[in-house]
Design a protein that fits this description.
single chain; 123 residues; Rossmann fold; five-stranded parallel beta sheet; 5 helices; globular
């Protein structure tokens, strides 16, 4: 399975990428919304999951996810943030196929949350 990872902080992106690769996922990285959209066009339906920071330069992960679902309608989304969960609109994380994970998190917690999303359980 291919995951599109969108994180503007390089060290965090590298760590999360290693977590995902350890879990057996192929990872396409993007540092922001523009590169994420380009990756989605290039990789198309191969991308099954978006893991995105909520706060991105010039936009946010919620707007990005909605744009990406225009390209890949079946896309599952996992938002990650170092901010309290209540700072994220509840309608965004209550959408089907969408979850939220607070930073910091362990590899196991990330991989469990992804499996939960992909299996269709309530996040």
């Amino acid at each position: 399975m291919t995951v599109l990872l969108v994180e503007d902080e390089a060290l965090v992106r590298e760590l999360v990428r290693s977590f995902l690769e350890h879990g057996g996922y192929q990872v396409v990285e993007a540092s922001g919304a523009e590169t994420a959209m380009a990756a989605a066009v290039t990789h198309g339906d191969a991308i099954e999951l978006l893991v995105s920071d909520v706060l991105l330069p010039g936009t946010n992960g919620i707007k990005l996810a909605r744009q990406l679902r225009g390209v890949v309608p079946s896309l599952k989304v996992l938002y990650v943030s170092g901010h309290p969960g209540d700072s994220i609109p509840s309608d965004a994380i209550s959408e089907p196929g969408t979850g939220f994970l607070s930073k910091p998190f362990t590899r196991r917690v990330l991989l469990d949350k992804i499996r939960e999303l992909m299996d269709g359980a309530n996040p």
